[in-house]
Amino acid sequence: EDEEGQFTIATTHTHARYVLPSVIGKFIQKYPKVELSLRQGNPAQCCQLVATGQADLAICTDPGDLAEVAQVPCYWLHRSAITPRRHPLLRIKPLTLEALSRYPLITYDEAFRGRKIVDKTFSDRGLHPRIVLSAVDADVSKVYVGMGLGIAIFASVVFDPKQDVNLRRIDARHLFEPSSLNLMVRRYSYLRTYMADFIQMFAPRIDKELIDKTLFKRRTAKMARMTLPEL
What is the CB-side half-sphere exposure of residue 74 using CA atoms within 13 A? Predict the structure, then answer.
């Protein structure tokens, strides 16, 4: 029976809130009898849920190397600086790390790869900005940006022009390397038809043949600077 069943997806707050809603809407329309569950956590937690069979797949950035979990890169995620309206940084073009480092920063919790990338980028330049808030929830962080507590450095997808009318976004892809948004699946597992359909709705470039090849490899190949679409 491939038209009904249970389907659990593990993901982070960012992707549950900003990346997946339209995909999940289409999926529920096509498979109304499937009981879909979302479980949120940081990338390591999401992959652990897949490794232990508590989730069918995870969508998150690179959590490290788990032998039980196969990784399929799907998209590049670029970063932006999010500021209040009329902030002095809006007049600096192009934006520089030195300019950013003069202001208190809000960024991801240390459990997220995005935080490691931000920290390393500043450190490599000999800069040590003050982190005033580390968060797993971009929506909470944007509230504090609006209060003037600091400048947020997050994935660009978290900025919504319609919702964030009191904020501004500065593209920072030239300053920070991107993260890959990946699909994580337990090795040697069986994906039901509706699970494979969900994957194609989320990442049309991934077909069943690629999934099968990835599931039955002994290890996931090291990801080079491959060509991926951007979110």
Answer: 24
